[in-house]
Amino acid sequence: MIAMMREEYAFTELKGLDWDALNDEFRPRFQEATDNNDIDAYAFALRDFLWSIPDGHVGFTSLPVLDEQFNIDIATGLGMSIRDTSDGRVIVSFLTDGGPAENAGIQLGAEIFSLNGEPISDLVDANVPWSSPFSTAHTRRLQQLRYVVRFSEVTDVEVAYQNPGGAAATTTLTTAPEFDSFSQSSFSAGTTGLELPVEFEVMDNGY
After folding, report:
1. Quick check: pTM over 0.70?
2. For 81-115, how does the pLDDT look when each residue is reduced to its tens digit (9 = 90+)?
3. Helix or strand or coil: residue 49?
4. How far lies 156's CA from each of 10, 161, 167, in Å?
5. Which of 39, 88, 90, 92 is least buried, going by the fewest C-beta atoms within 10 A?
6. Separation CA 20–CA 92 (nearest Å)
């Protein structure tokens, strides 16, 4: 596969890819998985290898072990979606009705400062979304914001925030198995999957 990508992948230079470095990093994982006949380890090695190529067109059909881990990793949420603004703030863009965040008094538009004492911007930057890889930085950022508020199990999360017009506050939320906030922040939210990629109409002159 590496040999093929060297010859046929059109964006090696544009993406700044070093196939030798990627080979050195990932080949031992593939070899170990092969030697141990460990299909799951092979699947995760393949996932991580493909995630290292910053191109949204790179991917493969998911495997059961990856689907299972995905469902584990996103099992619970805070009942809110977040987005960042051009001035560097991270704000609440959606609240699940009756979810942990709303029940704790967090309001739409609240600025989020930190989770469990870690600055929210640092957590977002470090997040590796399951929807990787990405061709553009803004697409990656939107997905990092989506996944950073998901957790693998019911757990307590300390949230530092400030409601619009209010004072800075800190509260502890217990995550819940809610998916409204996760679905709402999807790129596919509000679509059926049957939409045409281009909308058109025929004008009077025939164009």
Report:
1. yes
2. 999 999 999 999 999 999 999 999 999 999 999 99
3. helix
4. 46, 16, 22
5. 88
6. 42
